[in-house]
Amino acid sequence: MQNPQERVFTTAELARLVGYSTQQVRDLERLSVLPPTQRTPNGYRRYGPEHEVALRAYRSLAAAIGPVPARALMPTLRTASIDAAAERIDLLHLEIAQQRGRVREALKALHAIVEDSTDAFDESDSMTIGELAEALGVRASALRHWEEQGLLLPHRDERSGARRYASDAIAAARITAALRAGGYPLPPIGRVIELIRAHGDSDDARMLLQQRLGDLTDRSVALLAASGDLHTLIATSASATPAR
Q: Of 13, 57, 117, 136, which is the most buried if we count CB atoms within 10 A?
């Protein structure tokens, strides 16, 4: 039985509370971002406070990690245990930190490309495709694709034909991985790497990488701002889950 003190919203009322359209609210319900709704005898949806909590949490989370990842994650945050939900949020912070570290490694690699280092590259420091893929957190197939697009120029072992990545290829791979994580398509990344190879012109690459660092900082701050709404969501969901 419904608590007489509990506020009930129409679709339009709930949408206005968070600045969404009624169609957005219906779509988010269909995608299980919102809890299932009850219907009146004449078929109209009726939403309660738990729907407002979920919708506000989704809006905050989408601002931090993007709408598509937020839509995929919300059903888990709504229904998982407190431990599982907290772990998923911890992983979001960790992923941002890992991406920031990769961008900084790419900036170091960029510096190494441009500066005329007096230290000769030791062949023993070259990497296999598996080692480089693991270091960058990408699949080996991605490295092969980047090679097909001309972004990477690994050496081939004369006997086995296996790829070996020396300093220039490792640096190009770090730059590519960092920019791909930021949503940049391959063609402009390729043009930047070509300029570096031909002229040592690193300004565009440095600007893009610095912009990526700024984007990651914005995401970190937005995720911190979302913590209040996410806490309310998890606490509300936990209190609504019957004890076993």
A: 57
Are 165 and 205 in contact, with CB atoms under 8 Å apart?
no
Instruction: Tell whether 107 and 216 lie within a shared domain.
Output: yes
Query: Domain range holding 85?
Result: 11-91+222-240
Q: How far is CA 144 from CA 105, 135, 138, 154, 162, in A?
A: 21, 15, 11, 10, 12
Do both 153 and 109 map to the same domain?
yes
CA 229, CA 220: separation in Å to the nearest integer?
A: 15
196: pLDDT confidence band, cut at 50, 70 and 90?
confident
Residue type present at position 161: G
Q: How far apart are the C-alpha atoms of 151 and 167, rounded to whole Å?
A: 14
Domain for residue 2, yes or no? no
Q: What is the pLDDT of residue 191?
A: 86
State how far the Cα of 181 lies from the Cα of 188, in Å rounded to an integer.
Answer: 14
Question: Phi and psi dihedrals of 49, rounded to 5?
Answer: -55, -35
Token pair recorded at residue 146: 């980047």
Mean residue pLDDT of the chain comes to: 86
What is the average per-residue pLDDT within 11-29? Answer: 94
| Distances in whole angstroms, Cα of residue 100 to Cα of each of 95, 135, 212, 214, 243 | 9, 14, 8, 10, 40
The CATH number of whichever domain residue 60 belongs to comes to: 1.10.1660.10
